[in-house]
Amino acid sequence: MSWLKERILNWFQSVALRVIKTGEVPKHVALIMDGNRRYANKHNLRKKEGHSKGLETLIEILKACMDLGIVEITIYAFSIENFKRSKEEVDDLMDLARKMFNRLLDEKKKLKDIGVCIRVIGNFSLIPEDLRKIIAKTMIFTRENNRMFLNIAAAYTSRDEITHAIRDIVQGVKDADILPEDINEDLITDCLYTYKSPNPDLLIRTSGETRLSDFLMWQISHTCIYFTEVLWPEFSPWNLLSAIFYYQSCYPYLQKNRKNLKRIMHNTRVSMFLDKLYNKRDMAIEKI
């Protein structure tokens, strides 16, 4: 009777999806996928197997996001701090990343048909050279897709991101592309790794940890944050629906605060500087 149980669950999930979609659904969801190692310990598995199970969960959740009409997802795949883990675990994570991106390369047509654009944000200099090349190929062949955006934060922390943004701005002043009086919050925002993306509407962290681990700290000042005890490999579409329901309960308050946010229009000088900076970043990906 397991097939009947699965059918009933799928039916309930379908109904729940339709109910959730009658309310406000976040356009951009950020995920801190925590708990892979604890899941492995819980089930007497190797850490590598826990991370592999976490990847399977991610694929399932991405499909659920597409069904809900969520158009952008940003995942915290690998923090700069994670390089401090054992060499064996770091190597396993890099191997898992290679497999994931090679799999994406093998599914070029499917990604194009679905319209998924993949962006990797982080400090590329810290990523092994062969993996950088695979990542660059994936970003290049999906960059024209525009139905759904998957941002993968790898070798990333907010402190590193903001540091690089400040360096780019300082260099712009040195090169006389911009003036000191051009520097404001909006300019910093537009120099971050996430300059192509709107700020997240909802951030989900799994495994019971109630901290942000230096993830998108600049971007989430008006984001709904949802913490859950569920370990990431056990996170299901049902858990995603719970998070979105929570977001919907917070939405009136979030919307009220966002109405007070007004971006400053950049002058021509700043716009030209940003165009130059973005072109430089695109060329850097091309040269990898």
What's the structural blueprint in terms of helices and strands?
Elements: H1 2-20, E1 28-32, H2 36-42, H3 47-68, E2 72-79, H4 87-106, H5 108-114, E3 116-121, H6 129-142, E4 148-156, H7 158-174, H8 185-190, E5 202-205, E6 224-227, H9 237-258, H10 268-287
Parallel strand pairs: 1-2, 1-5, 2-4, 3-4, 5-6
Helix pairs in contact: 1-9, 2-3, 3-4, 4-6
Q: Any overview of this molecule?
A:
- By secondary structure, the chain is an alpha/beta fold.
- Helix content is 53%, strand content 12%.
- It has a six-stranded parallel beta sheet with strand order 3-4-2-1-5-6, with helices on both faces.
- Strand 3, helix 6 and strand 4 form a beta-alpha-beta unit.
- Helix 1 packs parallel to helix 9 (237-258), helix 3 runs parallel beside helix 4 (87-106) and helix 4 (87-106) packs parallel to helix 6 (129-142).
- The radius of gyration is 20 Å and the shape is globular.
- The mean pLDDT is 91.
What is the element string, with H for helices and E for strands? Answer: HEHHEHHEHEHHEEHH
In angstroms, what separates the terminal alpha carbons?
Answer: 53 Å
Rg computed from alpha carbons, rounded to a whole number of angstroms: 20 Å
Strand order of the largest sheet: 3-4-2-1-5-6
Describe the sheet with the most strands: 6 strands, parallel
What's the number of extended β-strand segments? 6
The proportion of residues forming helix, as a percent range, comes to: 40-55%
Secondary-structure-derived class? alpha/beta
- Average residue pLDDT: 91
Strand content: 5-15%
**Unreliable segments (pLDDT under 50, ≥5 consecutive)?**
none
Supply the number of helical segments.
10
* Molecular shape: globular
